[in-house]
Q: What sequence folds into this?
């Protein structure tokens, strides 16, 4: 089973960019579907984007055209490049690794978009 550590969150003004990174520790990384999810205050956790071991991606509608998920299986990392950020993107962002029945979460990293 993998363990996940996120980094790269912070504060940015509307229209700005941030890049989130997630490093996986453990074996079998390339077998996992990796994803980014987010949870805003008072709201449920929601999907942002996922990427399979082979590189197939899926984006939630709010992320389409602005966010890009990528992975490096050799380095056991998954990244989320976020551009044109909006205040409504403010949330705790979580890295996720899924290989049924395993479902692993990172500790989360805060992203705040405000002026």
A:
């Amino acid at each position: 089973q993998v363990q996940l550590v996120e980094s790269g969150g912070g504060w940015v003004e509307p229209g700005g960019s941030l890049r989130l990174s997630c490093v996986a520790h453990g074996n079998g990384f390339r077998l996992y579907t990796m994803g980014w999810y987010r949870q805003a205050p008072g709201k449920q956790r929601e999907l942002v984007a996922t990427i399979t071991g082979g590189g197939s991606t899926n984006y939630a509608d709010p992320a389409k055209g602005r966010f890009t998920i990528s992975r490096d299986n050799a380095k056991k990392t998954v990244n989320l490049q976020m551009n044109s950020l909006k205040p409504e993107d403010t949330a705790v962002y979580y890295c996720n690794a899924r290989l049924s029945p395993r479902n692993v979460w990172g500790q989360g990293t805060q992203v705040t978009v405000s002026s």
